[in-house]
Amino acid sequence: MKAAIIYQAGEIPQYAEIPEPVVQHDQEVLVRVKAVAIKNLDKLKASGQHYSSEKTAKIQVVGTDGVGLLPNGQRIYGVGTAGTMAEQAVFIKDWCSPVPDALDDATAAALPNAAMGSALALRFRAGLKPGETVLINGATGFTGKMAIQLAKYYGAGKIIVTGRNEEVLQALPELGADQLVSLNQDDNDFVSQLKKIHAETPINVVIDYLWGHSAELILSSLKGTGTFSARTRYVSIGSMSGDTITLSSQILRSIDLQLSGSGLGSWTKEEISLLFKEILPELFRLAAEQQLKIEVTTVPIQDVEKFWNSNLTDGKRLVVNI
What we know:
Blueprint: E1 2-6, E2 14-17, E3 28-38, H1 40-47, E4 60-61, E5 65-69, E6 75-80, E7 88-98, H2 105-116, H3 119-125, E8 133-137, H4 142-153, E9 158-163, H5 166-171, E10 179-182, H6 187-200, E11 205-208, H7 212-222, E12 232-236, H8 249-254, E13 257-261, H9 269-288, E14 296-300, H10 304-307, E15 317-321
Parallel strand pairs: 8-9, 8-11, 9-10, 11-12, 12-13, 14-15
Antiparallel strand pairs: 1-2, 1-4, 3-5, 3-7, 3-15, 5-6, 6-7
Helix pairs in contact: 2-4, 2-9, 6-7
């Protein structure tokens, strides 16, 4: 069969022939793949830089999930036991969700990773309550835009967003953002703006896709003065601006701060079960009813080598059709 494969970590995937996968036990199912989204996770795993990457060099199919057809013709989204960007892949039965007829393959393939990067953080790590104020750091990306919509859907009272892409940032109120904070401004101005916002409406939840210097600035803006403070649940999801930060112990001592992460390895079995049984079916339904705005760009698998390193800066997701 044809697939997008890499022969060594760090290489660009190539469209080539590879043996068909084989189901190993009754908890797996062979799927005819229709669409696979190219995500930052996939790129990091293919480069060997993600913490879950294979440590030994070997030929492998890229992609972690996708939309496809079961042997009985049912269309599903699922996670593969190995690479999924191929004509066929083996999916984990318990990690699959049905896809409604009204939802196209590309949108269904693009939605779940963004849902994992937003819904799980909002519901399980942050424990968002109706009426609370949410700050989304790095909201101009695909997952950040999803987080705005889901925060609003889950009942956030106010949503503050940051971003560098000014054109996309200015359009985020259409998705539910209430206040915009540009990351292009001077550090002091950025901190001053957030301090003013925090003083007026205490920030209850921070969903962070950037980490790095912007996280340092946000934490600095939350620093207290020795008086009682509202609790802030800060959830790290990505590190697009850097993997490490400097954190002053004075910040930790001056505010009621809960710092956690949301990603592969941090979720419980129960949370993953809810993701596939309840959360994804609900979000697929919302997307099919056009209550979620999801923008994708599609390319054929034959062109994966050409498009693999494409960076869509307008908050869209690149999806490979197979």
